[in-house]
C-alpha cells in the first residue's frame, strides 16, 4: 500500500515538473525575442551614434523583459523609437527602412 502512494507522489512530481517546464516555455514565448532584423537595425543605429542610450546593447533583446530606452515594441517588433531627448549624435543609418513595423521616429537635430 505504501509503495502505491510513493508511485502516486512520483507521478504527481512528474506532472508538476512538466507543467513548470511548459509554463516557462509559454512565458518565454510571450516575451519572445525581438525580430532579428529589428535587432540588427537597432545595433546598426547604435554603432553609428555617439551617446547612444545606456541600455542599448546591454541585453540581446530590445523588446524583452528589460527593453532598450526609447524603444517601444508590439508583438516583438519595433514600432517606435523616441530618442529626441537623449543627446544622441550621429547619422541615421539607411537600415532604418528595414524596421517594417516602425510607426514613429522621434529624433532631434542639434543646432
Number of self-contained structural domains: 2
Assign the CATH superfamily of the largest domain.
Ribonuclease Inhibitor
The biggest sheet amounts to: 3 strands, mixed
Radius of gyration: 22 Å
Distance between the termini: 83 Å
CATH fold type of the largest domain? Leucine-rich repeat, LRR (right-handed beta-alpha superhelix)
What order do the strands of the largest sheet run in, or round the barrel if closed? 2-3-5
Q: Helical proportion?
A: 25-40%
CATH top level label of the largest domain: Alpha Beta
Q: Estimate the strand proportion.
A: 15-25%
Query: Average pLDDT across residues?
Result: 80
Bulk shape: elongated
Query: Topology as H/E string?
Result: HHEEEEE
- The second-level CATH architecture of the largest domain is Alpha-Beta Horseshoe
Q: Can you count the helices?
A: 2
**How many β strands by DSSP?**
5
Structural class: alpha+beta
* Uncertain residue ranges: 25-31
Subcellular location: Membrane
Domain Leucine-rich repeat-containing N-terminal plant-type: 36-74
Signal peptide: 1-32
Main location: membrane
Report on the architecture of this protein:
The protein is an alpha+beta fold and 111 residues long. It has helices spanning 2-31, 36-48; strands at 49-50, 71-74, 77-82, 89-90, 104-106. The protein has a three-stranded mixed sheet, with no helix packed on it. Strands 1-4 form a two-stranded antiparallel ribbon. Strand 2 and strand 3 (77-82) form a beta hairpin. Mean pLDDT is 80; it is low at 25-31.
Amino acid at each position: 500500500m505504501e509503495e502505491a502512494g510513493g508511485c502516486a507522489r512520483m507521478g504527481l512530481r512528474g506532472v508538476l515538473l512538466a507543467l513548470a517546464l511548459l509554463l516557462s516555455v509559454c512565458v518565454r514565448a510571450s516575451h519572445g525575442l525581438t525580430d532579428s532584423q529589428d535587432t540588427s537595425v537597432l545595433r546598426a543605429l547604435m554603432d553609428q551614434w555617439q551617446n547612444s542610450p545606456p541600455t542599448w546593447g546591454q541585453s540581446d533583446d530590445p523588446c524583452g523583459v528589460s527593453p532598450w530606452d526609447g524603444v517601444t515594441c508590439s508583438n516583438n517588433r519595433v514600432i517606435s523609437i523616441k530618442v529626441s531627448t537623449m543627446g544622441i549624435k550621429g547619422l541615421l543609418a539607411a537600415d532604418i527602412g528595414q524596421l517594417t513595423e516602425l510607426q514613429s521616429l522621434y529624433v532631434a537635430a542639434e543646432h
